[in-house]
Design goal:
By secondary structure, the chain is mostly helical. Helix content is 56%, strand content 6%.
Length: 174
């Protein structure tokens, strides 16, 4: 019995149409969800780029600038600019760690906590609206399939991040 090829060929370069790809569809969904969340949070004056870090701080997924940058997949400069805007709005404060001066802690202000407390209600409503017409079984199947795609993506990223080792005299040796 042959092992199935772990990399299927669902797409072909000849005649490739991005709008038919799973990646394109996921990006479109993310864009529409983000726009609707931003619209529903307009009264908080939080943009799509701002409610995400506020929510990560609120849910304790990050408490330092470095953690927040990793969680939001931003570089240090973009994180600093975003935190500058959030601080100017009075939503968070930065403070150097007393134990390690290289570490900058971030805390939500009272206004930041209040704004963040609305996010779960908005996210739930927007996501439920996007799943209109789905049965519970279809919803669970969709989540399972997306988790498989995510696991594949994470495995590809991990493999790419692993330094390639060469064997002296092997095929990769110079």
């Amino acid at each position: 019995m042959q092992n199935p090829d772990p990399t299927p060929s669902f797409y072909c370069a000849a005649g490739y149409k991005p709008e038919g790809s799973v990646g394109y569809l996921m990006r479109q969904i993310i864009a529409h969800v983000g726009q609707e969340v931003e619209r529903q949070l307009a009264h908080t004056e939080l943009t799509n780029a701002q409610w995400i870090p506020i929510y990560k701080l609120y849910t304790k997924r990050a408490s330092t600038v470095a953690e927040l940058a990793r969680e939001c997949q931003l570089d240090a400069g973009a994180t600093t600019r975003m935190l500058d805007r959030l601080e100017a709005k009075g939503l968070c404060q930065r403070k150097r760690s007393e134990e390690d001066r290289r570490v900058v802690q971030i805390a939500l202000t009272e206004a930041g906590e209040a704004a963040a407390a609305e996010i779960p209600r908005v996210l739930s409503g927007v996501q439920n609206a996007n799943l209109a017409g789905f049965s519970t079984e279809e919803f669970e199947t969709l989540k399972s399939l997306l988790q498989r795609v995510l696991a594949n993506s994470q495995a590809i990223a991990a493999k790419a991040a692993t330094p390639k080792t060469t064997t002296p005299g092997g095929p990769d040796a110079a």
